[in-house]
Amino acid sequence: MTPEQFREHGHQAIDWLADYHERIESYPVGTRSRPGSVRASLQSAAPESGEPFELILRDLERVIVPGLTHWQSPSFFGYFPSNASPPSILADLISSGLGIQGMMWATSPACTELETHVLDWLVDLLGLPSAFRSDGEGGGVIQDTASSSTLCALLAARERMTGFASNAAGVIQGGYKDNGDFGNLGDFGNLGGATLVAYASREAHSSVTKAVKVAGIGEANLRLIEADDEQMMDPAALGLAMDTDAKAGRRPFFVCATIGTTTSAAVDPVRAIGAHAARHGAWLHVDAAYAGSACVCEEFRGSHDGVDLADSYTFNPHKWLLTNFDCNVFYVRDRRALTDTFAINPEYLRNAASDAGGVIDYRDWHIPLGRRFRALKLWFVLRSYGADGLRRHIRRHVELAKRFADLVSASNNFELAAPQRFGLVCFRHRGDDEKNRAILRAVNEGGSAYLTHAVIDGKVALRLAIGAVGTEWRHVAGVWEAMEENDE
């Protein structure tokens, strides 16, 4: 493809995307595809010769679009939002075109320094503790998802508690060498003869469970703490669990608090949780994947009381801050605790800037070596909308959620299943679980909207998560109309 052909086809692709967003309300929000239907429409083998770009675009429309769930639809209310704003889309295109591999400062200084600078902007914009800024001992890094951030935090916590990397003499190429320091080798949940134990609420995201499995801690060494009537972690139960483990010779090393749980957007009491973590020298990680974006508005910062006690904090601009997937931000209070966990310096990556120690090499801040230029889209978004535009974006969605919650509260047939929090409303029909599942199926299969469900207090609840860029009250009201039609 020549530069001129690239220019021509690039215009065609942008036009197609612009048209897609203009007509997105014409599609059923949820896909009508059946398993295997997309593959059955594809060629059985890769083409022998290159095909015209126009043909590829036609097949995009014919084969791919019918197999999509339209996350950018203003009537998509499932899971949590996954924004894709025009400035972010364009920045992602530029990032792809530049093809930067930003593993180290030396491989593209602008890639690293823009990321560091923009993440410092966000500390101030969200009112986060200054300890997370890069001009002190902490700092931030862009990860792909909050799941990766939770795993990195847990691994850093394991390292800080056990000094595993400092025992590197016991690890040899091709396997383990027992030097007597590791306890039960191959079981990282039992290092140094004491079992490591992690803690999270029963309402915490499933990524915490996945992290303890990947890290070798083991699911048996994860304590899921009871939640109270408002789905928040019970700090007294946490303290009892940690004390019980410590008295039994186990080592509490990691606690995850959640601000905006997936089920109901509940906010754990971070300050009380942090006090128990501090008593045991455990790492406190705060997962604010969804609700963190709300803190661009000062009135929502009360949800973050106690974050000053956290060793790490994560939130997803790709959920509610107009930055398309994937873009997760991960902050640490002590960046050395993180880099000591991941840093490896083979000769082929050595360079003068890194050896001098005066630059950040983000390859040492997470599991992958290679990394995309994700900071570019965050920079485009922050500059295009400004702080005021982001605040209006969040406040508009919260106001829509309040209006929908008021409809539910005034209804004889429906009730709130949890308090309306941020842009999420959890509600249910007053009938049984099957009635609620039937309404969910009918709304989603009708194609005018898309909801997901949860189980709250042992009962099925419907979730309406408001966050799409183009959502207006008419889209939210349409959900209510669809439910009433299916409640006859």
How would you explain this protein's 3D organization?
The chain has 488 residues and is α/β, with parallel strands linked by helices. The protein has a domain at 100-372: 3-Layer(aba) Sandwich (Aspartate Aminotransferase, domain 2), CATH 3.40.640.10. The chain has 15 helices and 14 strands. It has helices at residues 3-22, 37-40, 53-64, 86-98, 109-126, 146-162, 207-214, 235-247, 270-279, 317-320, 335-342, 352-356, 375-410, 433-446, 473-485, and strands at 139-143, 171-172, 175-176, 190-191, 194-201, 222-225, 251-258, 283-287, 312-315, 328-332, 414-416, 424-429, 452-456, 459-465. Strands 1, 4, 5, 6, 7, 8, 9 and 10 form an eight-stranded mixed sheet that branches. A four-stranded antiparallel sheet has the order 11-12-14-13. Helix 4 runs antiparallel to helix 13, helix 5 runs parallel beside helix 13 (375-410) and helix 8 runs parallel beside helix 9 (270-279). The protein starts with a helix and ends with a helix.
